[in-house]
């Protein structure tokens, strides 16, 4: 039987329940993270936990575990569930309290984590995906990885109804990010992506890509770009923990470039694969000692 973590303890998945007055359930008052697992090992776990603590701080949530304690719990979960390729989903809510909007005087955070098998979307990496453009109707704190995802849900639903994989959001003329990804465009061999302000989530995959650019002298700017820039870009790709570096070859029925994944996108995918290999190898070496 698959296990999950409930408030620091490993329990059977069937034993889990959410109190009707859990603030995550009623208000979306909580935060979450998704960590990729490759070869049974956590990828960019430190970066995800750093962002988790930052989201917690922005919402005055006190996570009762250190990063080391949390990592140990997550690693144990992956081991008992014998997860090879997949994800860990974890969330902290402000806990259970009588329903009032303001923070309760006393409450204990509810912590839940579980694993799912998720294969790498190789077909998407190779062929690319289509997207639509939608108005960004979300709140102004998209930098917090909060449980409130209704704006994102509605955007992704519109994409799904049009047979597309992602919805690219924009505020006026400015492209912000995908419904569950960051967006990059390539023009004249230079990458452009929205700066990490309150209007987007500072993606971990985005950070890895920018590190790759620094290491391989690929030019980039963290600057806003317009819908017109997007539609006339040489290449477009999205980045996220589960989608990694996925080429976008069509937006609102319009082909991007020649309608196939671009050369620089492919190069970055290759470097990203190397990063996965490097990180999983490093962990193996540590375990061997
Ligand atoms: C709104 C949004 N932006 C960006 C991302 C990409 O972030 P990461 O690369 O950390 O998965 C996500 C991931 O779920 C997201 O939901």
From TrEMBL:
Its EC number is 2.6.1.21. This is D-alanine aminotransferase. Belongs to the class-IV pyridoxal-phosphate-dependent aminotransferase family. It is an enzyme of class 2 (transferase). InterPro entries: Aminotrans_IV, Aminotrans_IV_CS, Aminotransferase-like, BCAT-like_C, BCAT-like_N, Class-IV_PLP-Dep_Aminotrnsfr, D_amino_transT. Pfam families: Aminotran_4. It catalyses: D-alanine + 2-oxoglutarate = D-glutamate + pyruvate. One of its GO terms (cellular component) is cytosol. GO terms for biological process: amino acid biosynthetic process; carboxylic acid biosynthetic process; D-amino acid metabolic process. One of its GO terms (molecular function) is pyridoxal phosphate binding. Keywords: Aminotransferase, Pyridoxal phosphate, Transferase. Its cofactor is pyridoxal 5'-phosphate. Acts on the D-isomers of alanine, leucine, aspartate, glutamate, aminobutyrate, norvaline and asparagine. The enzyme transfers an amino group from a substrate D-amino acid to the pyridoxal phosphate cofactor to form pyridoxamine and an alpha-keto acid in the first half-reaction. PANTHER family: AMINO-ACID AMINOTRANSFERASE, D-ALANINE AMINOTRANSFERASE. Homodimer.
């Amino acid at each position: 039987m698959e296990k999950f973590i409930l408030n620091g303890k490993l329990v059977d998945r069937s034993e889990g329940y959410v109190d009707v007055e859990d603030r995550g359930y009623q208000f979306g008052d909580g935060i979450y993270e998704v960590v990729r697992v490759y070869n049974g090992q956590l990828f960019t776990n430190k970066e995800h936990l750093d962002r988790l603590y930052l989201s917690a701080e922005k919402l005055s949530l006190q996570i009762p575990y250190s990063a080391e304690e949390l990592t140990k719990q997550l690693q144990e979960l992956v081991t008992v569930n014998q997860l090879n390729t997949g994800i860990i989903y974890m969330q902290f809510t402000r806990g259970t309290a009588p329903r009032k909007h303001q923070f309760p005087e006393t409450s204990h955070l509810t912590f839940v984590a579980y694993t799912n098998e998720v294969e790498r979307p190789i077909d998407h990496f190779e062929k690319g995906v289509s997207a639509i453009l939608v108005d960004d109707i979300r709140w102004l704190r998209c930098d917090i990885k909060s449980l409130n995802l209704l704006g994102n849900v509605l955007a992704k639903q519109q994409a799904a109804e049009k047979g597309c994989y992602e919805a690219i959001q924009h505020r006026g003329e400015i492209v912000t990010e995908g419904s569950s990804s960051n967006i990059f465009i390539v023009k004249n061999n230079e990458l452009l992506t929205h700066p990490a302000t309150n209007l987007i989530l500072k993606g971990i995959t985005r950070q890895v890509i920018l590190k790759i650019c620094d290491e391989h002298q690929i030019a980039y700017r963290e600057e806003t770009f317009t819908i017109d820039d997007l539609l006339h870009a040489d290449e477009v790709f999205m980045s996220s923990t589960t989608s990694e570096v996925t080429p976008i070859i069509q937006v609102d029925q319009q082909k991007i470039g020649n309608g196939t994944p671009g050369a620089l996108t492919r190069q970055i995918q290759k470097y990203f694969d190397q990063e996965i290999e490097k990180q999983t190898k490093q962990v193996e070496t540590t375990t061997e000692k």
